[in-house]
Amino acid sequence: MGPADSPVELTAGDFVRCPGDRPHVYESLVGESLVHIVVSVPRVQPGTGATGVARTHGTGPR
To answer: Which of 2, 14, 42, 43 is most buried when burial is the number of CB atoms within 10 A of its CB?
Structure first.
């Protein structure tokens, strides 16, 4: 699992963190496997030049 140019082999309970802006590979070497993928995306702040970003949560009063 990990970046296509430098994947790592994981066993039960292992964790790996890698940048999301590179091609990734995910392959089970022992048949069917269960994985939990967490994606963290930086919040876009108003006035930073980002366009076309729709808010999907947190639209209520602050």
So the answer is: 2
pLDDT at 46: 76
SS3 25: strand
In this predicted structure, what is the pLDDT of residue 8?
92
d(CA 44, CA 27): 32
Task: Considering only CA atoms, give the Rg of the chain.
Answer: 17
pLDDT of residue 56: 61
Which amino acid appears at position 18 of this protein? C
d(CA 27, CA 42): 27
Q: Assess contact for 59 and 50: CB atoms under 8 A.
A: no
Query: Strand locations in 1-62, DSSP E?
Result: 2-3, 24-25
pTM of the model: 0.52
Q: The tokens of 7 are what?
A: 């994947």
